[in-house]
Design goal:
Distance between the termini: 23 Å
Number of helices: 5
Radius of gyration: 17 Å
Strand content: under 5%
Shape: globular
Order of helices and strands: HHHHH
Helix content: 55-70%
């Protein structure tokens, strides 16, 4: 009898469970810590998103808010996960390389960790415990 902790070539249950936990945890953290304050939840005024690429202000705010609130919900449920991760990566990598590019490493660690986390999900996909897996009848891992 195969136990939960055993992992062989025929079963990726532990990896898919790990990906499920990981994508839920990192997405909830992104929403709670960065997304809600862009909506003005839990703060006196809504956060104004830096605009280092000089996009139109409304577009910049909508893009960043979508990447920090709506698309993480897609990642949580595993809906079009790889596509949902791309705008999130655009925001986190811009934060790392452009907004905090000249800052000391301790100030850049948060966008770095989010970027690495969502890059992992871009590479692996959501795993078999996702809506993507149900829709497309295959597992990403």
């Amino acid at each position: 009898m195969k136990t939960f902790w055993q992992n062989n070539n025929r079963s990726w249950d532990t990896i898919s469970l790990g990906l499920l936990f990981f994508r839920i945890a990192v997405s909830i953290e992104l929403i709670l810590v960065h997304g809600l304050k862009k909506l003005g939840v839990g703060v006196s005024t809504a956060e104004v998103v830096p605009n280092p690429l000089h996009l139109p202000e409304a577009l910049n705010q909508v893009f960043a808010t979508t990447a920090n609130v709506i698309l993480p919900l897609f990642v949580i449920f595993g809906i079009l996960t790889r596509g949902a991760v791309l705008p999130i990566l655009a925001v986190t990598l811009t934060g790392y390389f452009v907004v905090h590019g000249g800052s000391p490493l301790p100030e850049r660690d948060i966008p770095f960790m989010y970027s690495i986390s969502f890059l992992l999900l871009l590479i692996t996909g959501p795993g078999k415990y996702s809506i993507d897996s149900l829709l497309f009848k295959k597992t990403s891992v």
